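Researcher: I'd like a candidate sequence for this fold, 73 residues long. If you have to choose between options at a position, lean toward the conservative one.
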C-alpha cells in the first residue's frame, strides 16, 4: 500500500471526473481510502459521488489554462 504525504487535489477545486458521469466536478471532501486518498465530488447537475480514487481524477482544463485577464505569450 502506498503512503501519501500530500493530496493532489483540495476541497473546492474543480477537477475532471471520468467514468459513468464524465465531466467537470468539484471536490467536496477528502477521505482516507484503503489504497490511498479518495474524494467526494459534486457534479454540475447537483449529484454527488463518494469514494472516487485519486487516480481517477484529473485536473480540469479550466484550471490548467491561463488565468483570466492574463495574456498568453
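Model: Candidate sequence:
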Amino acid at each position: 500500500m502506498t503512503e501519501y504525504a500530500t493530496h493532489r487535489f483540495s476541497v473546492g477545486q474543480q477537477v475532471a471526473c471520468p467514468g459513468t458521469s464524465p465531466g467537470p466536478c468539484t471536490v467536496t471532501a477528502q477521505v482516507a481510502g484503503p489504497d490511498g486518498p479518495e474524494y467526494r465530488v459534486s457534479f454540475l447537475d447537483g449529484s454527488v459521488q463518494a469514494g472516487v480514487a485519486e487516480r481517477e481524477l484529473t485536473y480540469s482544463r479550466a484550471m490548467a489554462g491561463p488565468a483570466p485577464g492574463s495574456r498568453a505569450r
